[in-house]
Predict the 3D structure of the following.
Amino acid sequence: MRRERIRAKLERGELPDQREHYGPITAVRFGISEGAVCSACDEPIKPGTAMAEYTYASGRVVTFHDECRRLWELERRGGAGA
């Protein structure tokens, strides 16, 4: 289910893909959530759990559960490997 949601968001341009239409990534932060919402699945990232945050030159910030980040990385590169 998450993978399909991520794929659909990539197709609609709601998540960044390889084309860099949000500009290059300017910062990546891996840490512990304080209650953010995942940009991929739209579910809360429980406080105290692992998360990743990517900031783009355009100012766009996307946050992910660890699992959603891995799926996003696969799907934005063409879906190979899973």
Observations:
- Residues 40 and 48 are 19 Å apart (CA to CA).
- The first helix runs from residue 2 to 12.
- The mean pLDDT is 90.
